[in-house]
């Protein structure tokens, strides 16, 4: 019996290895994980069904319709494969459950056999007299005590065997229930798999019809694509011209700004810096000008305090606080006067002491003429400003620092949407001989949606295409964002816009597609917008 049981256990382990599973717990964990993946695929397919249902009355040559159809076919194929794997896991689960039932059944047979033997023995010795004689025939009191304990333990053993048989029976029933549940689960998976296979064939047929529709109208579609690309080239040329002109003007502005700043710094007065700020309130050096004004005001106040006290200590205190101050040289001159007077006083005293010593008479107090208090005069011309290493702010990186730090975190230019056309050269999803060159990304969204500014900036241009739609250009320092395919705009050139502000309505074409072409440029250099948008 034991050899048979060992063989059964080894067979179960080897069978588990052969199926890639070792324990029932591991099998269940992998099955649960697969069921979660299949559940996610079902949700994705449900969402795609809604999108396709929404467009069922629209042209089947809609780019968004084709892409959603492709996504659904891929998701359905993955789900069919997932259900196949799930069925295999359930079959393995049923197999392992059956092995456990067989093992428990064999153990139950042995338990019942042992219990039967116990009952037979108990029946033969069931009388109280036999038990009493068994105890009374003991040779000593300790032996009698041990025999009493033996009778008690034997009774407990009988009851324990009965409980063990009952527990084993319940365990077998539980395993049988789990097996039946797995069988029902398998039937459910098989039914789902059958349905999914049928739906997959239907969707593949729908895609084939779309392909045939495209091929039938390939010439017309190619012409439309070529016309759109021609229009886009015109828009791109105009955007480049506008940006190049702005870069040129920005360079001229930066040079003039720098020139006025150099003049203010050379004069180094409050008035010169204030003149700079009046001309360039938002200039590249406006912060430095304000700091210098504050420093000069503190310098003037310190100098007036020193002049009011007119002591050597006061001038020394000024120099300590403003070693490069605009009145530093004057302060040193005043200190020199005090030091000269002190030296003259010292020399005069030494002379008087020598004369008194010679005349043998007491030294008379020498009256020293005090340093003349200077008359109030206008502040002298400041010393030349010390050389400073001012940062050159005329380069594009400094002007666009806030925008560039948001790479990968910018909000989308629509409230809801998905990318249906990627940056760069891309083959047409169906007409393989057509290559579409995209300067940005195409974002499909709901009909009636508005484009939104992705960052604070200024509206630089609104470009209209004859017979077409509008393109909006917004400047963010030396970076630009472009919003193409707007049916109308709600801002005008020169407007300051905030992040998230509505810019205008996105056009819905004859196919029912509402697609915004969104671009990002550093100067006139085209960037991949996907690397800028967050959560895409």
From TrEMBL:
Residues 365-407 are annotated as: Disordered. Residues 1-20 form the signal peptide. SUPFAM superfamilies: Duplicated hybrid motif (SSF51261). Residues 24-58, 94-121, 167-231 form a coiled coil. InterPro entries: Cell_wall_metabolism_enzyme, Dup_hybrid_motif, M23ase_b-sheet_dom. Residues 393-407 have a biased composition (Polar residues). Residues 365-376 have a biased composition (Low complexity). Residues 438-529 form the M23ase beta-sheet core domain. Residues 378-392 have a biased composition (Basic and acidic residues). It holds the Pfam family Peptidase_M23. Keywords: Coiled coil, Hydrolase, Signal. GO terms for molecular function: metalloendopeptidase activity. This is Septal ring factor EnvC, activator of murein hydrolases AmiA and AmiB. It comes from Moheibacter sediminis.
